[in-house]
What we know:
Chain A is an all-alpha fold. Chain A has helices at 15-29, 43-80, 84-102, 111-114, 117-122, 128-136, 143-148, 155-164, 177-202, 211-216, 229-258, 272-288, 301-308, 310-328, 341-369, and strands at residues 290-291, 296-297.
Amino acid sequence: MLKSTLNYNWQKSRPILGTLLTGMLLLGTGCSSSSPPKTESSDLQITIIKDFADVVIIPTYQQLVAKAAKLSQTTNAFTSNPNETTLKAARDAWIAARAPWEQSEAFAFGPADSLGYDGDLDDWPVNETDVKAVINSNEKITQEFIGNLQTTEKGFHTMELLLFGNNNNKKAKDFSPRELTYLKALATAFDATAKELLQSWQSGVQGKPPYRQVLVTAGDENNPAYPTVAAAIEEIVQGAMGCLDEVGNEKIGEPLATKSAEGLESRFSHTSLNDFKNNVLSVNNAYLGEVAMAGTSGKSLSELVAQKDPELDKQVKEEINKAIAAIDAVPAPIETNLTNESALTKLEAAQTAVLALFSTMEEKVLPLVQ
Amino acid sequence: MIYKRKIFLVLFLIGAIATISIPILLGQRTQAIPLAGGKTTVFNRTSSAYEQPSAGISQKNFDLHGEGDIAFEAVFVTPPANINPGLGPLFNNASCVGCHIRNGRGMPEKGQLLVKVSQNPSVTSGKVKDHLGNLEKTVPGGSALPVPGLGTQIQDQGVYGHPPEAKVEINWQEQTGQYQDGSQYSLRSPSPKITLFNGEPLPDSVMTGLRIPQPVFGLGLLEAVSDQTILDLADPEDKDGDGISGRPNQVWDVEKQSLVLGRFGWKANQPNLLQQTAAAYVGDMGVTNPMFPEADGSSDIDSKTLEVATFYVQSLAVPGRTLLKDQKVKRGEKLFAAANCNKCHVEELTTGNYFIPALAQQKIHPYTDMLLHDMGPGLADNRPDFDASGTEWRTPPLWGIGLTQTVLPYSSYLHDGRARTLEEAILWHGGEAEMAKQAFVNMSEGDRSSLLRFLRSL
């Protein structure tokens, strides 16, 4: 989810460079041709799009569904028998469910936004005032009640607040009966939403065709979203860029600038570093056409880039690994380490590595596919 | 470190562009490609197409745009809170981007669809009971009289424990029609059922108008078009006898405290982007701001936040066209002109002076005249807004419209989102656009599909 606070610390230097570069290349290549992006498509491109749907996007959402089911089961077990063991199981399940979700953020286009699943699953920040008010009220907590709540009062981060407490410091005995009921209902709703999201890609919801169909028929004359295959390939690159921009400039950049844990995405559970890493893994998966967690792989953007510029493909892979290693090097949890100079230096290095990958994607990979 | 390097590169590139490319850009290329946003155009045909900063803006403006991006995405919560406090108590959505999804339009659904209301002066029976927390006020020159207790917009959400003003349900009605070649089509129209917070139905004395969120890219360019350019396109008496008039709206400017040309919103009821943004904060999100403060003069956000959010919509780029060499697209473009679509959806305008230099003096291709047109009873909401009558609507720009389903799959067209496809949007045209609609209805299937493909190339 977009994670914005009103503390400004904007520091990326994207578009002037990007758009001018793109412009230059276009001008360079085609004074005579009048169409900016090239539109011819190859079999490889078509396979890449198909595999992007079938071995990357859908398997990632399948992982989310499996882990959401586990989260719901363990939450049920905890709320019906609250003790430290059942609590730990539920917390672990929450952390496990985060991974596929954050790994989906480089391809958050399509139904995730337009049908509101992204908001229902992962809005931020938590509306703590209202969450407290819900807990302190007598209103019956049903699935319908959860359905009508604002998105900042459900999903990952509200569950996180309830499960871990405000600073990863809650004990099983601290849970009030209302909190247990609320938590259980949230996990049930979350499970249902994750299933629907997968369904929206796989078989279609609300009488709409599955979104997989839209993506894999890119280039067909009546395709509603991608009239050219090139546009669908570009979607992979732009998605990766959007994700890296957000991790580098907002998710890491914001706490770096403010030195406050308040802006860290998963600060209640002290797992924000996981989110950064999983976001870069999302880019990795989109670029390489694989999902390690699901054991799937196929044709990928990486091969297309390698065909045109093998050195560049090598560079992208290296930079992905460097970014992951740089995030791994930050001492966890970052939530309690923001006053530690050496941790901050490592966090800054992680930001630099993420933004280096962003620049390569923007300045070198994007022009290749446009 | 890397930022410094980048700035250097940028300067270098600007130099390179200026010496090598601008002559090309201004020469052959503009003849070959009608660049949607002039030199500010970006090339991106993906779901992030509406999220790009204008090409060619300065580093300083680029940074400001980035701050605005954060403000536009910020999700507000109930105070007190450390992050983004100020939501409500009444609201429709908690963030700008929650309605203008990926900076595109929104859906005709709760949390995104707005119901504008006003008191019908000629109906006296029926009164709405006062509802706490409503913030809209009467403005001079406005024909939309606030409904006591509701104001001019229904906020259908409240922070926890605060009842919303009303519950809005939309039922869709289908009707069928026929092309000249005999093929059938089906259109849907909304009928809202509005129940007040106390369980009573909305009285008949209240006029309603439904609005989906509009796309917000390219708006700085439209703000940069001079009043005179727009007024020159007006033909209120239809002196040229083409059945198409086109009138400016005159709306209240809160800063100037006077009536000025209206530009933004489906009925052009806002004069500029600052006021549009400030009104969105207070009306759509319950976030008070320096232009629309609390009774005691304080506000939830400061002027810096209001400014950067405004700057964001002012500096969002227009995506360039696609499929320019496609034969059907070329044919569709001719048919668009032949059917007189371009009498309202004017292809080319030139911007005037503007505070963002890159946006000034640009030849742009927005496909709008920024004027109000009578679109007939089929589309009427029968709720006047300043000079706009109940049947008049501002011609919406068509640039980037081909990306609507890429950015927001399943979204729809026209002021209330009734048209599920571009085809349906055309078929709803009436009034001054009746002839253009008839031209479409009379086209062969091949020509209709060429015209639609042209729209999808925009």
